Amino acid sequence: MEIRYSDKSITNIRDMTIKNSFNEYIFPDMELEFELRSMHLRSVKRSWHYPAHEHPLYEINLVTSGQQVFIVKGEEYVLSEGDMVLIRPGDLHSSSSNGKGNDGFSYFCIHFNIDDKLILPYFKDTTEVYYDANSMLTRSIRPLLDRLINFSKIPKVGFKEKMIIHSVMFELLGMLVSCLEEKDNNLENISDRTIRIAYKIAQKIDVLIRQPGNMDSSPESNIRVEDIADQLDFSVSYCNKVFKKVFNMSPRQYVTFRKLNESKSLLTEDKYSIEQIAFMMGYHDSSHFSRQFKRWTGISPGQYRQNQTNILEKNE
Q1: 3-state DSSP call for residue 264?
Q2: Each residue's pLDDT tens digit, 148-162
Q3: DSSP state at residue 125
Q4: What are phi and psi of 130, to 5 degrees?
Q5: Which H, E and C letters describe 275-302, residue by residue?
Q6: H/E element holding 209?
Q7: What is the dihedral of CA 196, 200, 202, 203, to 10 degrees?
């Protein structure tokens, strides 16, 4: 027998529960978008080189033996055993051996994507890329990276292993955020209320991003801060101030950031045509989407997709 409750019934039950409770701790509801891609443990020769590229994912790269040279946004970092780099979405980077000695090096790499509004506040004031083996962040997450490395050595990963990997990743992300939070004293001074309001604004933007707009306008122009402020019963200036304080960008900049990242992510998947991606991102035709994407990146969606394909083929 299946019992169904209406929203009103659920509210009544909750009210009755609260009324008859004398001590209660209620955690906020959680809805999280997360994906883990291209997790791999690799040993390479001295001649190995990975060309300059960027992607819409976060990346953690840990050297397990030898030395690796990483160039991120024009800055060179030489990683020895135990050192790591943390790459943000859109950071142009390349990698190679240092060319010394007879041996190459080994490294472990993970790419992940997580709900931007949750993690962006912790990255807003830090531009650090390189973390040596003795840094607080590396020492904190290294045991979790080692657990993931062990899974990389398993020839066949089943459902149980996938669930454990996800649980380790969430623990790793929690530790990562905790370390970044300690470095960012400004974030500690922001009230919980301010963060909640900023998250609500971001949530409403996320919902609107894929909704089609008018035929003669872009989806960006149909996401109005004025409308969101009205729904939340705040002034536009207050919404802008709160949002920028938490995310270090305006709501309008966040719209562009989310649109661009999601477009890039979809373009890396062969199962979607550019026409389908344009529709998914709220555009009525692919030419409109292509023009906007080129304004953002300087290249067309087709060129971006081909560039990503070429890089993958060179390193298979």
Answers
A1: helix
A2: 999 888 878 888 888
A3: S
A4: -95, 130
A5: HHHHHHCCCCCHHHHHHHHHHHHCCCHH
A6: helix 192-209
A7: 130
Beta bridge partners of 84: 62, 131
For the record, the structure tokens of 199 come out as: 């998250």
- Cα distance between residue 89 and residue 148, in whole Å: 22
How does 210-237 read in b/e, with b if 16+ C-beta sit within 10 Å?
eeebeeeebbeeebebeebbeeeebeee
Indicate yes or no: pTM above 0.85: no
Question: What is the Cα–Cα distance from 114 to 141, expressed in whole angstroms?
Answer: 17
CA atoms of 267 and 148, how far apart (whole Å):
27
Cα pseudo-dihedral 83, 142, 30, 248, rounded to 10: -20
Residue 89 contacts residue 297 (beta carbons within 8 Å) = no
Amino acid at residue number 175:
M
Q: Is the dihedral angle over the CA atoms 258, 265, 293, 59 positive or is it negative?
A: positive
Identify the burial level of 154 via C-beta atoms within 10 angstroms of its C-beta, where 0-12 means exposed, 13-18 middle and 19 or more buried.
Answer: exposed
Q: How many helices (H) and strands (E) does the chain have?
A: 12, 9
Q: Which amino acid is at 296?
A: W
Residue with the bigger pLDDT between 215 and 289: it is 289
